[in-house]
Amino acid sequence: MNPLVLPALAIAASLLSSSAQAQTPPTSAEIAAYRGLHAAAAHGDTAELIRLIQSGADLNARDSNGRTPFHVAAFAGHQPIALALLAAGADPNRLDDQRYDAVTIAAVRDDPAMVKTLLDNGASATLITSRYDGTALIAAAHLGHDGVVKELIRAGAPLDHVNNLGWTALIEAVILGDGGPRHVETVRALVEAGADVNIGDRQGVTPLRHARARNYAEMVAILERAGGR
Q1: Where exactly does CATH 1.25.40.20 map onto the chain?
Q2: In terms of Cα–Cα distance, which of 24, 130, 126 is closest to 74?
Q3: Rounded to whole angstroms, how far apart are CA atoms 122 and 52?
Q4: Who has the most CB within 10 Å: 38, 78, 102, 168?
């Protein structure tokens, strides 16, 4: 194996085994202790949520982990709650204490319907999120959430953003993926959308070279056809 590929392998192994990268959904104890909009969002109680909104509840109140009711709705996958909060004027782009927004939360949950709902109603596909200074697109590409990737591309997510690990969405789809159908489709979607196939990592190793090192034949073919080096 090319020695230039080894640093990326080491980082990838560390990330895949680390819990530090994970988002922090509300625990069962936190949900049990929630009151007001947070409780309504967690339980999907739209009628109670609307009643609280009409009574003047703080739409952007935060819990002990910096989650707003909107974050809670994204973690739970409650689209009607998210829509009600958006209609009332909740800020869809706030970050929680782990620096995640609702779009990235829904992207990691592999919830393309929620992602589409959020993006079609004022949420941004361009926010810089997480301790890695990444994006929702990078998070979704990492996980091979191809349906989410396509929604984010449609909404104008930055295709070539480089996070603080030195990786783009395309690189993450290769080096953090499993080479299976969903990661292959993710690579295809990124390439067809115009992602730069020759942005390398910090060692200058391109997505194509990473794919070759892992014997990901379908990814190699896609990247070669797109002019990868």
Answers
A1: 1-22+101-229, 24-97
A2: 24
A3: 22
A4: 102
Computed over every residue of the chain, the mean pLDDT equals: 93
- Pick the closest to residue 141 from 116, 104, 113 (CA basis): 104
Give Cβ neighbours of residue 6 (< 8 Å, ≥ 6 apart).
Answer: none
Alpha helices in the chain (DSSP H): 6-17, 28-33, 36-43, 46-54, 69-76, 79-88, 102-108, 112-119, 136-143, 146-154, 169-175, 181-193, 207-213, 217-225
Number of other CB atoms surrounding residue 87 within 10 Å: 12
CA distances to 14, 16, 62, 72, 193 from 35, rounded to whole Å, are 38, 35, 11, 12, 43
Which structure tokens are listed for 148? 């989410």
Q: How confident is the model at residue 20 (pLDDT cuts 50, 70, 90)?
A: very low
pLDDT, one tens digit per residue, over 44-85 is 999 999 999 999 999 999 999 999 999 999 999 999 999 999
Domain 24-97: which CATH number of 3.40.50.1820, 2.40.30.10, 1.10.10.10, 1.25.40.20 = 1.25.40.20
What pLDDT is recorded for position 16?
Answer: 47
**Please, which residues have CB within 8 angstroms of residue 32's CB and are 6 or more apart in sequence?**
none
Please state the pTM of the whole predicted model.
0.91
Sign, CA torsion 102/104/107/108: negative
Q: Which pLDDT score is estimated for 13?
A: 47
